[in-house]
Design goal:
The structure holds 2 protein chains of 2 kinds.
Chain A (H helix, E strand, L loop, with lengths): L1 H29 L2 H5 L1 H24 L6 H6 L6 H6 L5 H22 L5 H25 L23 H30 L4 H32 L10 H26 L3 H24 L12 H25 L14 H31 L5 E3 L1 H19 L12 H7 L1 H17 L5 H24 L7 H10 L2 H25 L2 E7 L4 E4 L2 E12 L3 E12 L2 E6 L2 E5 L5 E4 L1 E4 L3 E11 L4 E10 L1 H19 L8 H12 L1
Antiparallel strand pairs in A: 2-11, 3-4, 4-5, 5-6, 5-7, 7-8, 9-10, 10-11
Chain B lengths: L2 H30 E5 L1 H6 L7 E8 L5 E3 L3 E7 L4 E7 L11 E9 L2 E7 L10 H9 L11
Parallel strand pairs in B: 1-2, 5-7
Antiparallel strand pairs in B: 2-4, 2-6, 3-4, 4-5, 6-7
The chains are: A alpha+beta, B alpha+beta.
Chain lengths: ~650, ~150
């Protein structure tokens, strides 16, 4: 019964979405207020229907109803409660349900709180949202119904893929989807603006918070995924330039560009056509990401089994969305008139440079990701494009951008002088030079690129701090005055500062872990000691044991540095009871200067030795710490009064009152 | 600067970026693209020793042996041709005899020295290249656990 209710609610949601996709759009065209007004209740009703549907599926998982195929394939009565809940979206069908749930959540947020939007814009935005929703409802109902029953229910389920039974991966998909789907808001606003033929500062002020929220979620989602790969896959790596990873990285790159260009639209009323295009691209790449992950066309380290019929449906959806929106763009974009003019050396110019580099980098990643597919489709050789390609293309493209990032925020809008900005950066330049020298002295035998990477990170960090110091006029005015300026800074500006500082820390982490990692693979017998990067790993044997739904072999590594004990690591090799599948849990100890990382493998019965993998990963924790700071900056910026819903009108009134 | 010149500046920067990106992509393609071969391809096409390639097929039953120094030896087959593989390190959790596998590395005196053995997150998953290699050798669905 529960399954049928969920299925039925999904069909009703499709019907409501079909109405919402058409009636308000026509109403906006004919200036019919009543037709436009349909959008609001329809969007809310969609949310209610999808919530019912999602609730039903969750209930089926909680009650372990094995008459439903999806539950059979992904659950088991002995599975811990948290993974019964996470199991809802840890599979193809359920994750799509989560996708539409988030889509309707965003849609109804506009419907419920968008009272100060022009009615026609609101109607159009909600219509476009509903069109996307129709596509996904059809996809689910036709190819991936989560409520499908089995004829003869089995006694128990097949359990969830053990790799996914992990707290990090339980919240990774919702985060990632909140990001992916969040770009649908920017997309809907862009399409609505194209239909209307008007983009202004108010429009940008509406789009920015959604883009910012999506960006925060996507950043957190990607970082979580990379962290999961780091500790769960047991290879000590955190990013493999794998197609599935690139699929989430491309929307992030485009979204970051969009975030910056929408500021220009808001503040300076220019770069409109470009911003609209970026909004379309960011969402198209999100859809492409869904396609790449869900269709199984790529050989990826993260691929799951999949069904080709679904791939064709998503491909068709992709063609309609991307083709349709780009056609509309080509037709309508020339009518968008920008009023703001600016010189190449200016804040706008710097942001545009950022955008050009980000777009080029996105294109390069896209090329590397889909090139093997295209080549295969035309009957060429089977190839794979791996990390060497991306490292040698992406990193050189990013370096000038990081260098320019410290300068950009110092330039004034419209027209700026490079000289005073650079004069203020002398200190940062000196700091970066010193850091590079120190790094060089420490690791002279490592790759020189590592030294450059650390130098760039130091330059960006110090440059961002000097911008902050200049803004509060540190040492130029009394300290109390500086402090007052500091606390009065708008939160959006704080967001920028924290975002850039966070990126600097992340770059340092990536450089450290990428350049100076020490790896040691060997067989060890209990009592053996291996030295890795100055740390002595002593293997004290391994003991078997039982977890909630798995049995494990737990290795014991005592680690000492200069004879002083540092920590004891307990990596595990688990075998899950139901699926009989093994997983690896690395033993990790994070320190400021790097991570100690140990993995234990199978025992060789003949010799009594275990294969072990030991690593020292310098600075690796900085990477995730930096992302955390970036996301925090984004969230802080979201709470800025300017972004608060309904604020634009109020703020302008306040400004007038002050003037 | 006039509006037209301003636009030209950015058009120029964009072109420059594109040119740099193209140059980077082309040079990277030259040395970092990895071709995929089935064991049959590998022997027939006489791939030079030392060239970085990927191979794929099934791990032959009862071919996995542990050797000194964390090295594992096994054979990969497309059920027509079989090739010996040597890999140092921990094999992925889902590596098993009779299952599909993709390995990256190079040939050395007739033995494939793998630097990476790709792990899968799902045991029902068959790498598309492996499925294709098996279809090509006419052994699809007759051997292996392919669906």
């Amino acid at each position: 019964m529960t399954a049928e209710v969920g299925h039925f609610a999904l069909i009703l949601a499709l019907m409501v979405a079909a109405v919402q996709a058409t009636l308000p759009l026509v109403g906006a065209h004919r200036d019919n207020a009543e037709w436009m007004a349909v959008a609001r209740p329809a969007a809310l009703m969609q949310l209610v229907m999808v919530l019912i549907s999602f609730g039903c599926l969750t209930q089926l998982y909680l009650s372990s109803d094995f008459s439903v195929l999806n539950v059979v394939q992904n659950s088991h009565t002995a599975k811990p409660l948290i993974y019964k809940i996470a199991g809802v979206w840890a599979n193809h069908e359920g994750s799509l349900l989560l996708w539409v749930l988030i889509l309707t959540l965003y849609g109804s947020a506009v419907a419920a709180f968008g009272n100060n939007l022009p009615p026609a814009l609101k109607a159009r935005v909600l219509s476009v949202q509903a069109m996307i929703a129709v596509g996904f409802y059809l996809f689910m109902l036709l190819t991936s119904n989560p409520f499908e029953r089995v004829e003869i229910p089995p006694i128990n389920g097949q359990d969830l893929n053990p790799l996914l039974q992990d707290p990090g991966l339980a919240i990774h998909p919702p985060m990632l989807y909140l990001g992916y789907v969040g770009f649908s808001m920017a997309f809907s606003f862009a399409i609505a603006a194209l239909i209307e033929g008007r983009v202004d500062a108010a429009w940008a002020r509406w789009v920015r918070p959604w883009t910012l929220a999506a960006w925060c979620f996507l950043s957190a989602g990607i970082a979580l995924g990379s962290w999961w790969a780091y500790y769960e896959l047991g290879w000590g790596g955190w990013w493999f330039w794998d197609p599935v990873e690139n699929a989430s990285f491309m929307p992030w790159l485009a979204g970051t560009a969009l975030l910056h260009s929408s500021t220009v639209v808001e503040k300076r009323d220019t770069l409109k056509g470009w911003t609209i295009l970026l909004a379309i691209i960011a969402f198209s790449l999100s859809l492409l990401g869904t396609f790449l992950v869900r269709s199984g066309v790529l050989t990826s380290v993260h691929t799951f089994a999949s069904d080709p019929a679904r791939g064709i449906f998503i491909l068709a959806l992709l063609v309609v969305v991307i083709g349709g929106s780009l056609t509309l763009y080509a037709w309508r974009a020339p009518s968008l008139v920008s009023t703001g003019v600016f010189q190449p050396i200016s804040r706008e110019g710097a942001l545009l440079l950022n955008n050009l580099i980000m777009a080029t980098a996105t294109a390069a990643v896209l090329l590397g990701t889909v090139y093997p597919l295209l080549l295969d489709a035309v009957g060429g050789d089977k190839i794979s494009v791996g990390p060497p390609f991306f490292n040698s293309v992406f990193i050189p493209l990013m370096m000038p951008m990081i260098a320019a990032m410290a300068v950009g925020p110092m330039l004034s809008w419209k027209r700026a002088d490079l000289k005073p900005a650079l004069t203020r950066l002398w200190a940062a330049m000196g700091f970066a030079g010193l850091v590079m020298l120190a790094t060089w002295a420490l690791v002279a035998d490592g790759p020189f690129m590592g030294v450059i990477g650390i130098g760039l990170a130091a330059w960006l960090f110090a440059g961002t701090l000097s911008e902050l110091a200049g803004r509060i006029r540190l040492l130029q005015v009394p300290f109390v005055e500086s402090l007052r300026r500091l606390t009065r800074s708008p939160r959006a500006t704080w967001g920028m500062t924290l975002g850039h500082l966070g990126l600097a820390i992340t770059i340092a982490g990536m450089t450290g872990a990428g350049s100076w990692r020490t790896e040691s693979i060997q067989t060890m017998k209990p009592g053996d000691t291996v030295s890795v990067a100055g740390y002595d790993f002593t293997f004290d044997g391994a003991e078997p044991g039982q977890g909630p739904n798995y049995s494990y072999l737990r290795g014991i590594f005592r680690i000492a540095s200069d004879g002083k004990p540092v920590v004891t690591l307990h990596p595990e090799k688990r075998v899950y009871n139901v699926s009989k599948r093994p997983t690896t849990e690395a033993g990790i100890h994070s320190m400021f200067i790097g991570d100690l990382y140990a993995v234990v493998g199978d025992k060789d019965d003949a010799t009594g030795a275990y294969i072990t993998r030991l690593y020292f990963n310098p600075l690796v924790a900085w990477m995730w710490g930096g992302v955390l700071i970036m996301v925090f900056g984004g969230c802080l910026s979201l709470t800025d009064r300017r972004h608060r819903i309904g604020a634009p009108a109020g703020r302008r009134a306040a400004e007038l009152a002050r003037a | 600067m006039k509006r037209k010149h301003k636009r030209l500046t950015f058009a120029f920067i964009a072109m420059l970026l594109l040119a740099v990106a193209t140059a980077l992509v082309l040079s990277a393609f030259e040395d970092s693209i990895v071709f995929f071969y089935s064991p049959t391809d590998l022997t027939e096409k006489k791939v030079a020793d030392g060239r970085h390639v990927r191979i794929g097929g099934l791990v032959e039953e009862s071919s996995v042996k542990k050797a000194e120094g964390a090295i594992t030896l096994f054979r990969v087959t497309d059920l027509t041709t079989t090739i010996a593989v040597s890999y140092k390190g921990l094999l992925p959790d889902l590596f098993r005899e009779g299952q599909g596998v993709v390995a990256e590395g190079k040939l050395q005196d007739g033995v494939f020295m793998a630097s990476d053995v790709l792990a899968k997150h799902d045991e029902n998953y068959m790498p598309p290249e492996v499925a294709e290699a098996l279809k090509k050798s006419g052994q699809w669905n007759t051997g292996g656990k392919a669906k």
